[in-house]
Amino acid sequence: MKRSRVTLADVAAVAKVDRAVVSRVVNKDPTLNIRPETRERVLAAVEELGYRPNVAARSLRTSRAHMFGLFIPDFANPVYAEIIKGAEAEAASQGYVLVTGSASGAALGDYMDRIGQGRIDGLLLAGTGDESGLIAQLDRAAIPWLMLNNRSRSVKRYVILDDARAAALAVEHLVRLGHRRIAHLAGPSRADTATRRSAGYSAAMREAGLPEGPVVAADYTPAGGAAAMARLLAGPERPTAVFVANVASAIGAMEGVRTAGLEIPRDVSIVAVHDLELAGYLNPALTTVRMPLGELGRRGVTLLAALEPDDTVAEVLAGPIELIQRRSTAPPVS
């Protein structure tokens, strides 16, 4: 026989409280003043009975969709998978559904329609490029939005990672190994993350008393990394090590070294920002700087749920950031 849906009344009966108390506990009402043991009794009853709020009914009562959106530039970039996982987990814990899309023309139009119909309560923007038109529409509709690891010059509504520190860790690792000719395979000039990582590279080279090596920009794709590495290796003085701004670019950069008839790390050491599981299965395994991508997604949702449309947010997640040393880096050959 089909099991009937557990209701607020069922939970209230088990917890021996009023239905209104259950509703306010489940919805995390900050104004609710009850004894801690009463709150624990309600939560225990929720868990025991497997109660799940009726999101559709709650939306009608509160005029909220209980849905957040997340824009990413490209589903092909594996870095965003970790951000999405963190954002989804936090959204679910707060009773929201996360809808993710890439910032292509079709997806953008669909999101615009959803926003206009009030079907999204807030939007996370993960480096989608020129968001000015979308942001203007969000502001007109008084819908909270927040940039993830991307900053706007005009409005402070962002939470970012410490990309400069990540770059410094990578360069410091290469310097400790004995490298002096360290090049930088940077990200696209329009990307805020690329700007911060390049600044971290420059600062670390100055700190080490070394002249900056050649810098070549590329998009965050394997193809872009391969083409940029070819340009670096064609220069007048070949670097012994390269700091790459993104792990996807680094995968292409490694192929660029092999195409030039060189070996990693004997001829060129490579280290990249962002650690993914696949980095350990490359040949050779890639040295990376691990960033808190999942925490970035979680923090973005937490802030978005608490934001008013005109709130200012300018937050940097300090860590944890750590170097994961593998076989793609080694001391330079004399």
Automatic annotation (TrEMBL):
Protein name, as recorded: LacI family transcriptional regulator
HTH lacI-type domain: residues covered: 6-62
Top-level taxon of origin: Bacteria
InterPro entries assigned to the protein according to its UniProt record, in alphabetical order: HTH_LacI, LacI/GalR-like_sensor, Lambda_DNA-bd_dom_sf, Peripla_BP_I
The entry's keywords: DNA-binding, Transcription, Transcription regulation
Gene3D superfamilies listed in its UniProt record: 3.40.50.2300, lambda repressor-like DNA-binding domains
Keyword Nuclease attached: no
